[in-house]
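seq as requested:
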Amino acid sequence: MFGSRAGFVMAAVGSAVGLGNMWRFPYRTAEGGGAAFVLLYLAMTFLIGVPMMVAEFGVGRRTRLSSVGALRAVGGGVWVPLGYLFVLTSLLIVAYLSVITGWTIRYALDGLVAGYSATPGARYDEVSTGSTAVLFHVLVMGVTTGIVWLGVKKGIERASLILMPILFLILISLAVWAATLDGAGSGYAFYLTPSLSALMDPVVIQGAASQAFFSLSVGMGIMLTYGSYLSGKENLVREAVIVSLADFSVAFIAGLVVFPVIFALGLSDEVTESTMGALFISLPSAFGEMGAIGRVVGVSFFVALALASITSTVSLLEVVGAVGIDEFKFTRRTAALLAGALATVIGVLAAMSGDVLGVLDKVAGEFFVVVGVLGMSLFFGWRMTEPGGEVAAGASPGIARSVPALVFLIRYIIPPVLAVLAWVAFRDMVNTVAG
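struct tokens:
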């Protein structure tokens, strides 16, 4: 179990806060028309993400088991495939997320050692694929596996309590600095002025939903697994709201760093026509043009990215390892090593090919995540007996009175919305893979 409430909150925030906020959110915002995407993301976070996080916490705490065992214990064998979908989703995401984390470390080292390249596109090609990308991917997976090996208190909780405050401090400092740039106002205008046409675009809506779920770590079994380490005294709704607010805050502040820098230096066209690596080209280019201060800012930014990502890769690998412990009776060390080795092997494919990484992101990071959230909404709302009772346990009187409304939302409103989003995500995934 977690040793303290603060440790649990920081671990859950650490899982939610990651490259999804600081890498994926800005480029998805650019693709989705700026502020329209931000508004949709905010709506999806609190109308669907928070209730589903509460649901995962509740299932995990009731059973004290990992995703597969928890769904079997409450729903029977027919729900086991959903548990293994969580495992597969987490495994695939940690495999390619560790590759991108390796990029962030490489760019931080660039700033420390030699400064940022005058040919950022060529440098990105060197960093993102090939033997060096494999090496840094293996390094990240080694650190991730080591933290999971140490366990909940000594590994996950301790790392989160140290890394998350450092991340928040660096990110806020960068946002304050970005506000001083000439031309930052254009970046703020793009970021904060919504487009009504984009608000009604189903692809943008689906993208905002998958981004919210990816960022909050729902639909992957992470919050279910962390919930299994909670005592019955924890206020699940309160903790879900705190985690979600922290997660959205980091994503929003990351946008306040990225867009002013990009627009101040005239790089907006490159990002609005973004690929997955655009921000790893445009931002190093911006830092390089700033001279010595750019190196300081660049190192700080990429260190923050790396810190955020490590807390997420740890939580993803914990889902896989926890199933090894519960289902196959491995020791924690054996489960951590096997899960880490499997993710490392899969990640090598993503490190050797950007196309493979993009497909994994579409399949696992978008489609599987939405399907996982849909499955959990049906399980919690229709199969779990007295789900409201589990949520109300440990809640304050005011929150306890709102639990029936939350259960109604999960049972009747969220599933049809998610079914439509899953279809859009499936169609987008097929087009990406076919293309």
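The chain has one domain: 5-434.
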